[in-house]
Amino acid sequence: MTSGDQTVNGVKTFGSFPVTPSSAPTADYEVANKKYVDDNAGGFDITEYRNQAVTNGVAGIYNPCKTLVDEHIPSCVVHYEFFGSVLDGSYNPDSWYPINGNGSVSYNSRVLSYSTLTGVSASARTVIDQEQFSMSRNYLSFTVKIDSMATGAGGTRNTAIGFQPAFSSFYSTNRATFFQDSSGNWYCGYTGGSTLVSSLSIGRNLQSGDVIEVRLCRVEGSNNIDKVCFYVNNVKQLEMGSAYIPTSSCYAGIGVYGDTSVTTARTLGVKYVAFMMKF
Description:
By secondary structure, the protein is mainly β. The protein has a single domain (81-278), classed as Jelly Rolls, CATH 2.60.120.200. It has 2 helices and 17 strands. The strands form 3 sheets. Strands 3, 5, 6, 8, 13, 14, 15 and 17 form an 8-stranded antiparallel sheet that branches. Strands 4-7-16-9-10-11-12 form a 7-stranded antiparallel sheet, with no helix packed on it. A hairpin with a 2-residue loop joins β5 (104-108) and β6. The chain starts with 33 loop residues before the first helix and ends with a strand.
């Protein structure tokens, strides 16, 4: 029988694939052939949608530079990357929040600049999400590429990059930061102390172009954060155990500080900022 309707019962085994009509199926239970599936199944590539505007994005991905899924790490991840115009806090204040604090935070030519003023107490700063992050998280990381810096003069001047309970003031303990003191020396700061960067394997002070990272992570088998690591240009310089991590929840951010005796402003310029929280 080569035409007309026919009902076939039982199992029929084909020695080769049957060829269907070239037209697409239109009704329920009609067969979908290979070409139809190839043309219509589609796919999802996270790299195509990451950092798109909300109208172009998908659930769980947020513009700019915030993702709740990651194609490389099998866990829930919040990940920000700020560079170019996205460094400008006015572009994305909900994620990267600038506070002048009697100083200034300004963006120009792909650089975000922080500065104290003279004769006033200042704390120019930016923070991630205006939110404190708990030490019960599995992993926290804050990375910055330094573009420029000026030590300034007079009074007490500090710069802090990393994790503090607040960035409205400079913390000398209960922290995980790279910080610069009034003399211009950079340190790895942690709860209970600090270590001079130039005394570590890098053998020098931080300088323009360096990429620094502070990681709060955990020893294998631990439930909560229990170590802090400091990296310069992707090389680990220092690791400290659980006694040296912050003792309370912290903001991730950058702060430049000066008191009323400052006569020449403390400044810092950055070209890239990244934050990751994995849990």
